[in-house]
Design brief:
With 153 residues, the chain is mostly helical. Helices cover 46% and strands 3% of the residues. The protein contains 7 helices and 2 strands; from the N terminus they run E-H-H-H-H-H-H-H-E. Strands 1-2 form a two-stranded parallel sheet. Helix 1 packs across helix 2 and helix 4 runs antiparallel to helix 7. The protein starts with a strand and ends with a strand.
Length: 153
């Protein structure tokens, strides 16, 4: 599914100018915003996306795998994540993404495969000696259409 210019502009305004998440009008826009999010800009954007009622499962998985899931596999608590990585807030976000996927976020027909995220296989990491086991559902690909946009920014 291709985003039109107006949709791309809304995503850009959210990602670059801090526009309210409510301006994103479709699950495809939410997914694309998750995909374009610059993690150096903090966690307010991903938190806002997760709170949107149309947030798609594919976007949750994308944020999870791109957001430092290894913090969960190395740390068992927020305090450990903060002490080890100064990332207690990331730990909380990742746990919320996990919980949302487990609870059954809708797919909205949007595809994502954590074993082939632009050529990266997030699922191939070793699974031995994990402090927090990644739930099996987090490894599942989501069937649907890819979201693309003509990048004008």
């Amino acid at each position: 599914m291709r985003l039109d210019d107006a949709q791309s502009d809304r995503v850009r305004a959210f990602c670059e100018q801090g526009a309210d998440v409510a301006t994103l009008q479709t699950p495809a826009e939410l997914f694309y915003a998750a995909n374009r999010w610059n993690w150096d800009d903090g966690l307010d954007g991903p938190r806002a996306l997760l709170s949107h009622p149309d947030f798609p499962r594919a976007a949750a998985l994308l944020l999870y795998w791109n957001g430092g899931y290894d913090i969960l596999t190395d740390c068992g608590t927020v305090e450990e994540a903060e002490e080890e990585f100064q990332a207690g807030d990331v730990f909380v976000l990742l746990m919320a993404l996990e919980a949302a996927v487990i609870a059954g976020l809708p797919t909205h027909g949007i595809a994502y495969d954590p074993s082939n995220d632009g050529g990266t296989d997030w699922t191939s990491e070793g699974r031995d000696d994990l402090v927090h086991a990644v739930p099996a559902v987090m490894f599942d690909a989501v069937d649907g259409e890819a979201v693309v946009a003509a990048l004008r920014w």
